[in-house]
Request: fold
Amino acid sequence: MEPAKAPNAMRQLSPEKTAAILDGAMRVFLEQGYAGTTMDRIAAESGVSKPTVYSHFRDKEGLFNTLIEQLVQKKQWAKCSQDLLQPSEESPEVVLRQLANDFLDNCINNPEQITFIRLIIGESGRFPELGRAFVQHMDKPMLEALTHYLATCPNLNVPDPAVLARTFMGTLIYFIINHEMLHGSDIVPMERDRLVEHLISLIMALHSGANFEREQAKG
Reply:
């Protein structure tokens, strides 16, 4: 186990050195896996000394968590979450369709990101903290924002926004895993636009059904 610096020994690196370390760490993690990666190797790949790496990142887990946070910001998933919390005059169909397409674009158009997520899933059995970090930084903010939107949108009336948020995201994630990560698009083909449009239609049908039941109860 490599010794970690004490918290009071940490100092802020320049943005250039921080970026170099994160870029180098990403390359090493993708090549060696989490278990096979060492801080020595990250330092060498980044072109900095090991003390420099430890001056900003306490250990390998902290560095990996920072990579996940950077991935969220870089792919604008955090922005998607914040946008969902803002009042909008757009119809739910437009908002949810845009969200679905942005999410799929952010994943599918970045092979490095797909490989990184595959790494997290593959290593989470031995290192549960990696899976938990992924859920904490990537899944949880999006699910919370989407649940809030579904619960408060004046043009929607759904019985269980939290379940619907998970159904929405789960459908998109399954598509990415099946078509991109497991290379199964030719085995169980599905057009992306067809999937998204049907998903939106199901949500709007659920909204219409809830309104119908409410009106029936009043009558």
